[in-house]
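Reopening this one. Same input as before:
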Amino acid sequence: TLMTSIHRKMYDYKGDDKNKLIEEMDYEYMPFQKERDIHNRCCGGKFWCIKDICGIICAILTWLLIIYAEFVVMAVILIPTINTVYSSLNMAIFQTLAFLAFASHLRTMFTDPGAVPKGNATKEMLQQMGFRNGQVIFKCPRCCSIKPDRAHHCSVCQRCIRKMDHHCPWVNNCVGENNQKYFVLFTFYIAGISLQSLFLCIQQFTMCVRQEWRDCTTFSPPATVVLLLFLTFEALLFAIFTVVMLGTQLQAIWNDETGIEQLKKEEARWVRNSRWKSLQAVFGRFSIAWFSPFTSPPNAKTKLDSYLYSFIILLLFIIGLIDAYDPNDKDLKTILLPDGEFEAFYLKGPQSEEENAARPAHLHGSFHAYRHPALVNAPNSAAYGFRFDGKRRFNYD
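Same output, byte for byte:
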């Protein structure tokens, strides 16, 4: 929720004698997306956390199953024959896939899937966002939020989620706009280690039977059989599940239609992207980063990304390579900031244009604010500013 209280008075000028400022503009704002929205957050609001006991148990079970597969593949199958190049290669591949699967699971679970600010469907917020009287606005009756197109309410997360596909208990989170990439990678890497584990188990069984269980492993034959059978069952089950889920997710991205939209057979009120643009909307421009759980998708930059971007913008402005704002740039291409975490307020004061131009830029956290001379005479506005949020500009007049 963004709460802005503006207390306006007037400046009084008499002749050349400028009285002191008697207009006070007091901004008390809560950023639209993340700064103080601590619902469903933990560790001081740094991480997104869903406090659902079923989801927590499923997430822990997922980790335990990965650890079990790691133990059997390494200790029962590969380590006894570590001297061979074949075993070393399989070990490197399995460790890499397991690490990426674990990292993808954590990123999916602790990333805000695209939650709509809770309780922002107020009259003041609607006015600030530029909605007109009579304009149709969808409001969620459960979380009292302005419901964007393609957003759906999750009864587990108790939030409206942008482009919500489904709620997955295995990651204890919704799959939405900001974490769909991580979920796709999670299913991809789990499918990879499941298929590799299944292949290695069948190969180990065949070798042990051929050698009549002599020198095929460091464990006893009964223990080896039990461990391999359980891993075979686990690998087969999760290979089928994740391959199907991976195909479903890729089809949804390919068709630019979420799982919920497919089930409800909703009439598309949005302009469908081309298939390639749909992939880029989730994974970004094609590169090796598509397969990395450590790079953020286009719509989910981290706070560190925001601070770095602000620093670069400020540095370029100081050395004179860019200007803070070009009033002729209607699309804000010069400094269009990513992911909606930035705000800029341009305040109109009693000074002349030259005095306003001389006042320095200032920073507030990750927000870059600068009083540009071209905005001093903004019509009907004692305060003019806009929020960078998904290429939309909200004016505060």
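So the earlier flakiness isn't reproducible anymore. For the record, DSSP finds nine helices and 15 strands in the chain.
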